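Q: Could you predict the 3D structure of protein-serine/threonine phosphatase?
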Amino acid sequence: MSHFSSMFNGLARSFSIMRAKNPGNGDGREAAEAMAKDAKKNGLILRSSGVVNTDGSDNFASVFSKRGRKGVNQDCSIVWEEFGCQADMLFCGIFDGHGPWGHFVAKRVRESMPSSLLCNWQETIARASLDEDIDLESDIKHQRFHIWKHSYLKTCALVDRELEHHRKIDSFHSGTTALTIVRQGDLIFVANVGDSRAVLATTSDDGTLVPVQLTVDFKPSLPQEAERIIQCNGRVFCLHDEPGVHRVWLPHEESPGLAMSRAFGDYCIKDYGLISVPEVTQRHITSRDQFVVLATDGVWDVVSNQEAVQIVSSTPDKAKAAKRLVENAARAWKKKRKGIAMDDISAICLFFHSTPLS
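A: Sure. Here are the predicted C-alpha cells for protein-serine/threonine phosphatase:
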C-alpha cells in the first residue's frame, strides 16, 4: 500500500497545514477552501480566459470564452494546477448556465465544486486506507476510479443540495451544466452533468490525429434520459419552430423547456426527471494522446469533433488554441445558424505534454 499510503499522507499533511493556518476552521471543506485561496495567490488557479502553464508541469491549458447574442455571458470555467497541493494533479471544469440567474448559478457551482470534491476525495481515501477488506495496491487503476467516482457522486449531490438553499441565488428556474476533469498522473477522470462535451485528440496508427469523444451529451432526446423523465411524469417534446430540439417540460405547463436532461439547479423540474447525477469515466493517458477539449454546446452545435481537433492542433501557438476554436465556432454560427441568436461559446484546451505537437 506504499503508493496510496504516501499519497494519503501527503494529502493529510496538506490539510493539516491549512487547518493550522486557519485554527477556526474545523472541517476538511474549509481546509480545501483555504487551499484554493492559497493556489489563487500563487497563480495556480485561472477563472477567466487565459493560460495556465506552471514550471515543471506537463499540463498546458488554454482557456477562452465569448459572449453570445442572448445577454450576459452565462458560461464560466476554472483550471486549478497542483489540485489539492498535489504536484501531479490538475482540476479543470467548464460550466454553462441558463435561466434568469444562470450566470450566478454557474459561478456558484464553479466555486463550490472543486473544494467539495477535494474534501470528499480525502475522506474517501481515508476510509479506504482503513478498510482491511480493500487492497488498494491490488488494482490501483480500479481503486482510483472507484474513489473518484464515489467522491464525484457525493460532491454533486451536496453541491445541488446547497444550491437549493442558497439565500442569494434563485435557482428555481435557473441552472447550470458542469463538465470537469481531474488529471492525476497518467489518468484522467471525467465527470459530466449536462450537454457540454469533452473530446480527446489521439494519434492513430498512421500518425494522424483523431477525435475520441469522452462524454455523452445528456439531452432529453436520448432514449434512457427521456424514459426517466417520462417515468417521473415530466414531458419531452419539440416545439413546432424547433424541429429536432427536444426539451423537458412540466406535466401541465409549457415550462421550463430545458434542452438538457441533467443540470444543477432548475428545482422547478427536479421532481420530474431532471437530475444532477454525473457520469464519471476514466482514461489512461499515453504518449499518443495529445490534448483534450472541454467546450460548451455553443461550440458543438456548429463544430464537429474532427473539426475541433484540426483547429486546435493546427494552431501554432498553443496559448491561443482555445481562442481560435471559439472564434471558428462563432463564424460557423453566422453561416450555419442564420436567424438564431448565437449562444455563449467557451472552451478549455488541455495539452498533456510539454513538447510541441507533431
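Q: Anything worth pointing out?
A: The domain at 2-218+260-336+347-351 is CATH 3.60.40.10 (Phosphatase 2c; domain 1).
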